Amino acid sequence: MRKITIAILALILVGMLIPTGFATDSNLVITYGESTNANSNYKSIVDSFFTSQSNVNLGDVNSKVITADQVNQISSGITGKTYSSSQIYSSALLDLNDNDNLQVSVDKSKITTITGDMYISALKSAGITSGHVYVTSPVTATGESALAGIMNAYEAATDVAIPDNVKEAANNEIYTESKIVENSGVDADSLSQLVNDVKDQVSSENVTDHNTIVNIINNYVQNNNINITNNDIENLADSIEQVQNVQGDVNYYKDKVSGFLNNGNSTGGFSLDGLFDWIKSFVNGI
């Protein structure tokens, strides 16, 4: 009888110790574009894509709203334009439970310019190498602004801030690629492969000189018969140079976030399994 009484008291203690909001999975985060969140029909369209693609119960997911102000803080200096609250549609679901490799699934019926490989490349530029991201919009959109929401989702899930200059470099990479696709009509997958290969070479050789990066791009373009303008090459070199120059901050961020990813949770060390194991051993020891 004494064991039963103590066990009941221990279960009451569990209820007191479980953090508020623990019903949601902190490895799952949705970021809704401000315009999407304000329209129930738009939000339903986005949620349907997330549910069908990820098989995640959205009732278990933390959600955040990405505002025009947040997007503009990162992108206005890059694109030269600002968004209004009625223009932020792109939304993203981050699943860090699936964190062996970085994957991005894009709703190609709605996201017209940015591909999954482009998002992956930009996220890797920011030091993000794991998780499964799903990107969609209730209306057709280029997908440029979605990167701000994706990075915000990683910050919310891991409680580790991505340095602003790293965000700017990753967003500039996305923006530069989207403009080249729009202006030159180059195949998005070919351009994404070009950027990945050039970044790898620049990183492995620790190149920071702009003209050297331009030469590397020119050689790749010629060898792979990719038709982009000299202006495109200059802009691409600027973007890759910017990514290379923030690698110190990227490595700092990766060091901070690696502990979270290795533990596979963001509950600050709290574990229901561990708590129940402790109660079981405690009661058995009475």
Could you explain how this protein is built, in words?
It is a single chain. By secondary structure, this protein is of the alpha/beta class. Strands 2-1-3-5-4 form a 5-stranded mixed β-sheet, sandwiched between helices. The chain has one domain (23-248). It is built from 12 helices and 5 strands. Strand 4, helix 5 (116-125) and strand 5 form a beta-alpha-beta unit. The relative contact order is 0.13.
Tell me briefly what this model is.
The protein has 286 residues and is α/β, with parallel strands linked by helices. The chain is 59% helix and 11% strand.
* Rg from alpha-carbon coordinates: 22 Å
What is the ordering of alpha helices and beta strands? HEHHEHEEHEHHHHHHH
Shape verdict: globular
Strand order of the largest sheet: 2-1-3-5-4
How large is the count of helical segments? 12
Largest sheet: 5 strands, mixed
**In terms of structural class, how would the helical and strand content be classed?**
alpha/beta
| Helix residue percentage | 55-70%
Strand content: 5-15%
Number of strands: 5
Number of domains: 1
Low-confidence stretches: 9-23, 265-283
Average pLDDT for all residues: 84
Q: How many angstroms separate the termini?
A: 12 Å
